[in-house]
Structures are given as structure tokens and as C-alpha cells.
Design brief:
about 160 residues, OB fold (Dihydrolipoamide Acetyltransferase, E2P), 2 domains, four-stranded antiparallel beta sheet, 1 helix, lipid biosynthesis, fatty acid metabolism, fatty acid biosynthesis, biotin
Amino acid sequence: MSKQNTDTDVAFISALAELLNKNDLTELSVKREYGEDDSLEVRVVKQANVVTVAAAQAPVTAAAAPAAAAAPAAPVSAPAASEDPAQHPGAVTSPMVGTVYLAAEPGAAPFVTLGAQVAEGQTLLIIEAMKTMNHIPAPRAGTVKRILVEDGHPVEFGAPLMIIE
């Protein structure tokens, strides 16, 4: 994919997100064909004033099934309806797409709990991406005020994971 396609795709996805908000839609899914072996599939989903965008760049084959985008994780602690957790100054966002794990292994104690004091660099959770376990460190010291994801659920790039104040 060329730089021109990338810039065009970013503008296209932004336009889809704007269209979603302007028309009070909750979901929009589009497939864009560039050629015989090149396409872009985009799914934009809006939940509780948060817009999640999932895009997959993949070659198209006759037997290929449409790419399914993962649903955003449900919040563990209920946020206020008018508040966007991603805009909170203490938000810790996902650096990648993957599956969230709040503990090192099933049945183990979670890395952090609600109200816990964390130090900068302390592991908050793990995101599994492409069979690699990525430890997500606390960007700053503080108190865990909200945990916005559930163990074993998928997350998107940029999705808010926790609020640390």
C-alpha cells in the first residue's frame, strides 16, 4: 500500500466517523476495493459516546470471508453517560489491538485492582497480540480510579483501558 493510499484511507475513515456522528448511527461497515488483490475493510462502531474504528488491509481472494472486527470491551466500572473516558487526563490507552488479560495467568491475582496505588512502570495488564504477551506499564504513578476493560475481552488501538489519577 502506498503513502497516498494511507493518507486517503485515514481521510476516508475520518469521514466515516463524522458520518456516523452526524446521522446518529451506531455502526457503519464499508469495504473499499483498490484492485484485484487489494482492499480495505472498515467497521466504525459507536458506544456510549466512544467511537471505535477497526480497519483491516488484506488481499482479496475469491474464497476470503469478510474481516470481522472485534467488539469493544465492556466497562468494568460504570462511567458517567456524558463522560468520555478516552478524553480523561488520567486515561491509559491501548497501544495496540489485542486481547486484555488483567492477571498473569487464569486464577492468579490481578496486576492491579480498583483503588490500588501504582508506581510508574508497574505492569497494569497484559495485551496479547499475535500470540505475544505485551505488558502494559503505568505511564505515571497514581491511584487506579477506573478499570474500563474486562479480562479476556478484545481491545482496539487507542481504547481507554484504565483511569489513573
